[in-house]
Every structure is written in structure tokens, then in C-alpha cells.
Input
Amino acid sequence: MPRPLPEAPDPPRRSWLPGWLERYRELPREVHFFAAGQFLINLIHAAQFLLLNLYLKDRGLDDPAIAALGSQRFVATLFLAIPAGLWLRGRPLKKVLLAGSILFPLSALAALETVRLGIMPLASATFLLMGFAGLLLNVGSLPMILRLAPEKQASEALSLVFASWAAASVCGGALSTGLQALGRMEIGGLTLVFNEYTTLLILTLVACAAPVFYARIPDAPARRKRRHHWLHIPRSEWPVLTRALIPTLCIATGAGLSIQFLNLFFSHVHDVSSKAYSGYGTISNVLVMIAGLLVPAVKRRLGWRGAILGVQGIGIVLLVVMGLSELVRAAAWALPVAVACFILRQPLMSMAGPSTSELTMSYVGEDNRELVSACNGAIWSGAWWLAARTFQLLRTYEFPYWQVFLATAALYVVGTLAYLSLIRSVESREAI
Output
């Protein structure tokens, strides 16, 4: 009796997605859950980036007072990030992320209400608590995503998480613009006023659903067990950690001087309303989302140098041009040029984010990922706190915005060039 022929294998399923997008669909489900939770948390960040300073200004706070209050968010991270990173090396991270996802929206709600009620000492405390909750999320996020994703899909996993920030910014910007366009509505005798406060409140309430997605993430263990006491850092690793953190220090300090105050720049220099600024931010963040998803393809084609040094270099030039528009603010073309630079600069600088994170995590090795992630958080918080105080001082003495932007650009150049040392080390390691 003839043996039956083996069944032909099913042909591979054809996808309508291009190859670079298909790689995101193939990521593990838990990575998608993580990105969804990040998206909801980032709705708060997006709303605060666009509107919080303007809301505080509307409540009667001047530039120095706004900078002083906003800087409270960074104090907790500055002092607690490094101990948290040392403690969490090699430990489970799910409970930490879940706690942060619960505490962050609640503290953001408390911050809004205390400012609205004019209880400023309590408002400072809520901003401090918001910084602590952000610390819990920041320390665990990068190490956790690298635990959840296979090593060959690390670029796509990191890019997806960064793109979730851009997607949240797009949604937050669109909602901010749409809600404020409504202005005032009458519903059954009830008057609803859609302003900065209402928009911040709505997006923060939506973000309260983030713990649902964090709860569905498995508590993935570290691939390597911790070899030392949690407080111990081998002497041989100090130079590695220092070299890995120098670029972050420069770029974070530069960003803290100007990026967190871009809405005030456009409001004071170019008389741009919060509604218009939200619209410009939405357009920029659409480009950020697209550029973020393209990062793995760009890195494969151009390498580390093109994906980091190239895109950040162009972004720095655009920042300088945007700042110098203050000198010609009376010209009809000054505002369009500033807006064009604002819209294009952010995608380029953000596009380097997944690549610099992957480069840094690869350079320091798995044993130090939690620590470096925590140190990065401490540096960003400390630098932004110090930069906010510096901005407060500069604006008190009426320094123009364009000089602040040039200082930012100089720090960006130093930080971008500092990545070259890390790139050479990782490339030599990969060549072996």
C-alpha cells in the first residue's frame, strides 16, 4: 500500500503591512500591554507639557513661580532614584510599575485641585508626590521592556514604547485643541467651560485606567541573577557607568533650560494662544510617532551614527533657528519659521531616543540596566530642577529666550558628541 504523501505546509500568511510595521505586530502580547499602559500614563505627561504652565499662568503665577512649582516634581527623583536603581537590580519589577501607575494619576489629580483651590503649600507637596510616582515608572520601564522582549526584537520594543509617548501626545494635543475649541457648552442648564483646567482634568481621569494594563504584564525575571550585594558596585564598572551617563547629563540639562518652557516662549514672544500651541504640538507629535516607528529601519540602514548623531545634529540646528526668531519677532515670517522649526525639531530629537536607550543599555550590560535607568531618571530630574531654577533666575533678570536656547544648543552638541565614545565601544564589541 503506497504511503500517503505528507501534507504540504500552510503557506505563510501574507500581511498587508510593510515589513517594518509587521515587526511590531510580531512583538509578544505583553509588550503591547506595556505600551498601552505607557500610552495612558503619557496622556498626563502630554497634557501637562502642553497646558500645565499655561494653566498655572492663568491662575496668576508668574514665570519664576511657575518654574519653582514645577521643579518640585524633580526633587523626589533626584534624591531617591539611585537608591531605587540599586535596590531593583535583578529584582521583579511588576509591582513597582503597578504602584507607579496608580499613584501618578492620583497625585496629578491632587495637584490640579490644590492649584485650583489656591492651596499652594499643599500643591508643592502634590507635585513632589507626582515626581516620586514618576520615579517608580521611570526606573523600571526600560529594564522591564528589555526583559519582556526577545533580544532580536529589542529595537522594535523600545521604539514601540517611545512611539506610545508620541501617540499620547497626538491624542492629548488633539483633545486639547478640540475641547478648547468648544469653549463653553450648555447641557440641561449646566454650563461646561472647556479650558486648560478642564482639559488637564479629563486626560488625567482617562489615564487612571493605566493600572489595568500594567496588571496584565507578567513579572518577567532578569535573565541574569544579581552577583553582588544590592549596594555594591564593582570598581571596574564605575568608568563604564560614568561614560554612559555623561551624554544624558548634558542633554537633560540643556532640555531643562528651554524645552519645558517652549509654551511660554511662544506665548510671550509670538503671542501664540494655548489652543494654537496645542495644534502645533499635535502636528509635531504625529511626526514624532511616525519617526519613532521608523527608528529600527533607520538604525539598520545608517547605523548608530546616523540614527543618533545625524538626526540630533539636524534637530540642534532647528532649535537655534527657532530661538533666534525672537530677534526678528516683528517680521511677518518670524512666526512661521519658529513654528516650522518647533514642528520638525521634536521628531528629530525624539527619533534618537530609542537608539540612545538601546545603545546605553547595550553598553552597560544587563547587570547595570536598572541602575543606569535610575541614574538617567535622577539626572533628568536633577538637571530639570536645576535648569528650572536657572531659568527662573534668568527670567527674573529678563534674559531673552534666544540666549537660553543657545545655551541649550551648546549642551546638546556636547552630549551628542559624547555618544560617539559609546558607539565606538559597542561597535567594537559587536565586531568580535
